[in-house]
Amino acid sequence: MTWWWSWLLAIVGITGIFLAGSKHKSGWAVGLGAQALWLAYAVVTRQWGFLVTALVYGAVYARNWLRWSRDESARETAAILADPATMAELREAEAEVEAGLTTDVSDLLAGMASRRRAA
Q1: Is 114 exposed, middle or buried (0-12, 13-18, 19+ CB in 10 A)?
Q2: Cα distances (Å, whole numbers) of residue 41 to 19, 54, 64, 90
Q3: Which of 61, 70, 73, 78 could form an S-S bond across to 31 if both were Cys, CB 3.0 to 4.6 Å?
Q4: What is the predicted pLDDT for the residue at 70?
Q5: How far from the centroid of its chain's Cα atoms is residue 71's Cα?
Q6: 72-114 pLDDT tens trace
Q7: For residue 31, what are the CA distances in angstroms to 9, 76, 88, 119?
Q8: Closest by alpha carbon to 54, among 44, 67, 40?
Q9: Where are the domains of the chain?
Q10: HEC string of 45-78?
């Protein structure tokens, strides 16, 4: 193995932890990707203990990435529902659906979500 492998593993791992610690869910994805590098390292160097470690760390990174994604969606939904203007838009959209003026609620919701992000 060449000298740069250890630096690559360190840089990718530290970047993932830094991003996750800065509340970026992408940090968990970077950490998960780092485990693929650790798997390669374990096989090439025949250090089989690293296989187990990479698999366990990978499972934790994947779990946290998924959990943070769900939590982020829940926070966005709560913020939307707490906004009086958005709730008024939802009531208008509901009235359009009930009146038969539209059946495509997904476009209405997507427009509301994009306006919310822009605000």
Answers
A1: exposed
A2: 23, 10, 24, 53
A3: 61
A4: 75
A5: 9
A6: 777 777 776 677 777 777 787 778 777 877 666 666 666 666 7
A7: 10, 25, 41, 32
A8: 40
A9: 1-62
A10: HCCCHHHHHHHHHHHHHHHHHHHHHHHHHHHHHH
